[in-house]
Design a protein that fits this description.
Elements lengths: L5 H10 L3 H12 L6 E5 L22 E3 L10 H4 L3 E5 H7 L11 E4 L6 H10 L3 E5 L6 H10 L6 E3 L3 H7 L4 E7 L20 H21 E11 L8 H10 L3 E3 L18 E3 L9 E8 L9 H7 L1 E2 L3 H4 L1
Parallel strand pairs: 4-5, 4-7, 5-6, 7-8
Antiparallel strand pairs: 1-2, 1-3, 6-12, 8-11, 9-11, 10-11
The protein binds S-adenosylmethionine (SAM).
Length: 321
């Protein structure tokens, strides 16, 4: 077992009042254990699934299978043929807030989309008429397009733009905006990955400022009565509950919405509904998720010129040859 840093111990004291919870949290981050992975079926599930499947969790959609830890779904032919997308259960947990959104849904905008997991989860959960996937870092756009294409999401439009441009060009337009924000990545430690400086206050502050900047722009793009889904894969309060509280204070027309499927995961660290998965649960590396609803009234016409001018179409091999 690795030695916990002073900053990790300090964080554990802020997150938990009980010593045994603090110890379990610290242990999960310093002594990583394998987590079950998940597959998101984007084509009808075959009658015989060629993997050992773990029992479904209450917040797991019917089109997701949780696998036992020793499975390698990324190496199977069904993966190559685009039958499913592989991700971790923490992503499925974060996206479970989408279950509280009434359908039908006109347009989903995923602002931090690469490599594409949340876009595909949103597509399966909401079946939007329009799927707009944005990735600000150019070199990550290729993997986003490749995953969307492999999984048959060829109706999606892909963008490589700063979130501010959406706020300026398509205000109050998207029925659902997903922000799976860049963060300090503390949960990566639970998977045995490195996350340099993830507990350092300067790094956390830098991430929190970036998250607030992204959200301030994002909020402008949410249609009246639409939803903003905010999530991270980190544990610090400053990047999670405090960011959501900041947004609701800055733009009071946003309110946090209860997600019945996640009732057992309500964060004890906020006075509004939001949800946490802890790494010591054994279900996934962990994260934070909150669903905000725009109570506003303003309605804007859809700026199709902007979307068609900047959106990259995903061509199938038949269409592009
Ligand atoms: N949603 C993705 C998925 O489920 O596959 C993972 C997203 S990852 C947690 C965060 C993403 O935010 C990264 O792709 C990163 O390039 C992008 N990002 C980094 N800085 C950003 C910024 N200033 N504005 C918007 N996105 C940013």
């Amino acid at each position: 077992m690795g030695q916990p840093s002073k900053l990790l111990l300090k964080l554990s004291r802020r997150l938990f009042t009980e010593e045994r919870d603090r110890d379990a949290f610290v242990e999960a981050l310093t002594n990583p254990q394998p987590f079950p992975s998940a597959i998101v079926w984007v084509q009808p599930r075959p009658e015989q699934v060629p993997f050992a499947i773990a029992p479904a969790l209450p917040w797991q959609p019917a089109w997701v299978d949780r696998l036992t830890p020793d499975q390698r779904p990324g190496q199977h032919l069904l993966h190559q043929s685009g039958a499913y997308y592989c991700l971790d259960m923490a992503s499925v947990f974060s996206a479970a807030i989408l279950s509280a959104i009434p359908t039908p849904v006109k347009a989903v905008l995923d602002l931090c989309a690469a490599p594409g997991g949340k876009s595909l989860l949103a597509r399966q959960a909401l079946h939007p008429d329009h799927l707009w996937c944005n990735e600000v870092i150019r070199k990550r756009v290729r993997i986003l397009i490749s995953n969307l294409k492999r999984c048959g999401a060829t109706e999606a439009l892909v963008f490589n733009l700063d979130p501010q441009l959406f706020a300026e060009q398509i205000p109050h337009t998207a029925s659902v905006v997903v922000v799976d924000a860049p963060c300090s990545g503390q949960s990566l430690l639970a998977k045995g990955d490195s996350a340099l400086g993830c507990f350092h206050p300067v790094n956390i502050k830098k991430n929190a400022s970036r998250q607030k900047r992204i959200l301030a722009h994002t909020a402008q793009t949410v249609a009246a009565k639409g939803y903003l889904a905010y999530m991270t894969c980190t544990f610090s309060l400053e990047e999670n509950e405090q960011v959501a509280a900041w947004l609701m204070k800055k733009i009071p027309q946003f309110e946090a919405v209860e997600v019945p499927a996640l009732r057992d995961h309500a964060s004890p660290l906020a006075s509004f509904p939001c949800y946490r998965l802890w790494p010591q649960s054994g279900l996934g590396a962990g994260g934070f998720t909150v669903l905000l609803r725009n109570r506003g009234e303003s309605i804007e016409p859809l700026n199709l010129d902007f979307l068609t001018a900047h959106g990259m179409k995903i061509y199938t091999s038949e269409a592009s040859s």
